[in-house]
Model the fold of this input.
Amino acid sequence: MSDQATRAAVSIPNRPEDIVVWSADYLGYRWSDDHPMNPTRLDLTMALATDLGVLAGVELVEPSAAPDSELLRFHTSAYIEAVKRAPSQGPALRDPDDVVHGLGSDDNPVFEHMHEASAMLTGGSLAAAREIASGRARRAVSIGGGMHHAMADWASGFCVYNDAAIAISWLLDNGFDRIAYIDVDAHHGDGVQAAFLGDPRVLTVSLHQHPATLWPNTGWSTEVGTERGEGSSINVPLLPGTADRLWLRAFHAIVPGAIGAFRPQIIVSQCGVDSHREDPL
Done:
C-alpha cells in the first residue's frame, strides 16, 4: 500500500465520516422532457434525504466540472469533441461521425450543454474519490454519478461520460492499486467492466438481470476478465422477478468472499435502483 493510500486508511482527527457530493448543476443533465432519465429524481432524492434527516451531520461538497484532461483517462479525444459539437447540430445530427459515437439516438438524444452537464457529473465522482483518497472522509456519495454504460468512444444507455471508470482511473494514479467495483444496477455495468477487463488491480462485481432478457445483453457468468486480468471480473446474472430473499442470497454468497479474497483498499459502488420491481426500466 502506498503512503497516500495508507493515510486514507488511518484515523484523522475531526474528519467527517460521510460526505455527499451535490450540485444543483446536476439538474442540467436533462435529455428531454419525456426521457425516462429525468434529473428531477436527483432533486427529489436530496429533498427527501433532507426531510428524513439522512443528511444530518453529513458534509455537502460542491464539485466542479471534470476537465478534458480527466475525461481523457477513459474517453477518446475524438469522442469528447463530438459531445461538445453535437448540441450545435440539433437533434438530427448531420455529422455521421457523431452518430457513430452513439449520439442522437433514442436513448442518447442531443441536449443543450451536453458536455458541460456530463462533465459536472464526472467531476462529482472525482470529488468523492479525492475526499476518500485525502483521508478527509471514510465514505463519500456522488448523487449524480453512476454512468456505467458509457464506452471510451460512444454514448450508451443514457450515459455520456463514464464517471465511475474515470474515478477509478484517478484512484489508480493516486496511491491505490487494489480497487473493488460493485454494481447492483439491474443493467450490467458493461462500460466499467470494459475499462478494466485486463487490469488485475481492479475487481469488478456486477449483480444484474440476466443478459438474455435485458439490455445491454452482457454480463454473462463466463465474462471473467482477460489476460492479466483474468479472474478479476465477476458477473452474477439473475432471472427477471428475482425476489429480495434470493437476490440477497446471491449477493451474500458471492460478494463478501470475493471482497475478502481480493482485499481492496477502497470500494467503488454503483447503486442503481432500477432493480426495484416497480421500476419500468
Remarks:
- Residues 114-133 form the longest helix (20 residues).
- The longest strand covers residues 202-209.
- The chain has two domains: 15-163, 177-275.
